[in-house]
Amino acid sequence: MSKNPVYPALSLLAAAALALTGCAPAASTQTPAASAVVDSTATDALAVSQPWVKAATSGMTGGFGVITNTSGADITITGASSPAARTVELHETVTAPTGAMQMQAKEGGFVIPAGGELRLEPGANHLMLMGLPGPVTPGAEVTFTLELAGGGSFEFTALAKDFSGANENYVGEGAGMSHGQPSGTAESSAGAMPTSK
Length: 197
Ligand SMILES: [Cu+2]
Known about the structure:
Strand content: 35-45%
Bound molecules: copper (II) ion
Order of helices and strands: HEEEEEEEEEEE
Shape: globular
Radius of gyration: 24 Å
Helix content: under 10%
Distance between the termini: 87 Å
Keywords: Signal
InterPro entries: LpqE-like, Lxx211020-like, PCuAC_sf
CATH class of the domain at 46-171: Mainly Beta
Protein name: Copper(I)-binding protein
Organism: Pseudarthrobacter oxydans (Arthrobacter oxydans)
Structural class: mainly beta
């Protein structure tokens, strides 16, 4: 007997298998952050999910969200800016010797490890919007540009919403708005950001 009769069946199976794998391209394990307001114009390595800003009438407020580094290398955020604030600082929240929560500028910026994420949330790391030129009303869209070590940037838009938390004290709060600048550099509306180091 010839083996031939089996052969076509096998190739049919093979073809079917090929068709199957061909039909189901790459299980998309990387769901690109469920956010309708993402605009990564400059750096594809970063993605943001659920970006938001605490609505405020004046003064200062905070920006939050989860920023994911999809690349194989660490990425450092060295600065930030927004049309909604005269200056934006990278803040961390620390516990003062008194036990109170205080925010201060994050030395060296935020490092997002390769394949990792940076969680910006009330009571922790956040973007500090200072010197609001006008109110940030709920529903408003606030654009941020993050500056990255190495010269890149990452832009995204966050939605403003009411939030009653994120009322941590500022380092040096008693001394007006020195805000973590131990040198006592007065913050002026002229906008020049004193770099503390
Ligand atoms: Cu802050």
